[in-house]
Amino acid sequence: MSTGSSQLDELLGSIGGGSFYLFYGEDDLLNEVFINLLINALQPEDAVHQVIYAICGNYRVERNVIEVEPLLQILEHKGLSPEKALRRVRVLTASSADQQSQLACALEKTLDENCVSLVLVSGLYKLQIDDARKQKREKVMEEVQRSISRIRQACAFHEVPVVASAREVKAKLLPRAEVSSFLDHLANMTVHLRGNWGKGFRRAFLVKSSVKPRGSVEYCFQGVNELGRNTPPLRDSFNEAVVRLRRGFRDALVKPSRREAFDRLVEAWSSEIGAITYAESVSLFDLLLLTAAIDNRRLIEELSEKLRRFENKGGETG
After folding, report:
1. pLDDT > 50? residue 248
2. Residue 175, preceding peptide bond in cis (omega within 30° of 0)
3. How confident is the model at residue 226 (pLDDT cuts 50, 70, 90)?
């Protein structure tokens, strides 16, 4: 399986077998690698194999999401149907060390029962640090490391590559991965990503490998430049999103009152399209949800004010 970048393929070799690849660096760079690997693993469109996407992380420490919009854009750019492709993605989540143990069990079951071509694990080691149980650190460490070992063994047994990400820790020369010596030992390849994601500069450092010489390379992903030039403005993305929601969500709502409520939300979104366009750093669907919550707050305040006036009027009459 290709990474989607000829330069990365030359540095690492293709992704395959039951090997364990560990990437660390800035979130934007890691997300970009994961999205391209996910899309390549879902090709061809008529294949039956699945991809497991596991997300580990404590929401009280940082937010953990799959960047849906760039994923949809690249799927369409590659000529894949987003609906068909995403049906073959099995998403697993864990927000504590004991949940990560349960995630490992679910992953083993999925590998046993389905044809899986790739396992992606975002934040594989985060819960070793971020688990809320401050008084039981030894148990937390045991749960996390046991789950990592089970994920590694299950993927190796089924000859499915596992690509995991970790946060980076600053060091004097090259930043290191936030992992234990145990996890560092398990990885067949460890790769550090560095660069300015927004300006297009990316460099990958092969820190550890049992089969390839250490080195580094500047890399880019095929079609990224063309995609960047053709990416529609947020207003166009908004219009396309509303069309998809009307067709795939609104029309499926059972109660007519809820369909009418959806139409009122579209009116609220449309009236604040200027604010939605201005907040470029937030994903479109998060902005739609925020706008809906604000409009709900407005309606609550209007109803509360009417109720106060009604109560005052009733008090004066009494």
Report:
1. yes
2. no
3. very low
Cα 89 to Cα 21, 195, 282, distances in angstroms: 20, 29, 24
Contact 275/288 with Cβ under 8 angstroms?
no
Q: Which residues pair with 217 in a beta bridge?
A: 204
Residue with tokens 């364990």: 20
pLDDT score for 199: 62
Angle between helices 256-271 and 234-248 (to 10 degrees): 180
Encoding tokens for residue 112? 């046993």
Helix axes 234-248, 284-317, angle to 10 degrees: 70
| pLDDT (tens digit per residue) in 103-145 | 999 999 999 999 999 999 999 888 888 887 877 888 888 999 9
Nearest Cα to 249, choosing from 231, 271, 274, 266?
A: 266
Rounded to whole angstroms, how far apart are CA atoms 314 and 251? 43
For residues 235 and 157, the model is more confident at 157
> Long-range contacts for 181-187 (Cβ within 8 Å, ≥24 apart)?
182/145, 182/148, 183/22, 183/124, 183/125, 183/145, 183/148, 184/22, 184/208, 186/20, 186/148, 186/149, 186/152, 187/20, 187/21, 187/22
- Number of Cβ within a 10 Å radius of residue 252: 8
pLDDT recorded at residue 113? 94
- What's the CATH superfamily of 6-228? P-loop containing nucleotide triphosphate hydrolases (3.40.50.300)
Among 34, 16, 17, CA closest to 25: 34
What CA–CA distance (Å, rounded) separates 83 from 251? 17
Quick one: pLDDT at residue 282?
58
Q: Where are the alpha helices (DSSP H) in 42-136?
A: 68-77, 82-86, 97-113, 126-130
Instruction: Enumerate residues 6+ apart whose C-beta is below 8 A from 74.
Output: 35, 36, 39, 223, 227
User: What whole-number distance in Å separates Cα of residue 309 and Cα of residue 258?
Assistant: 29
Domain ranges of the chain: 6-228, 232-317
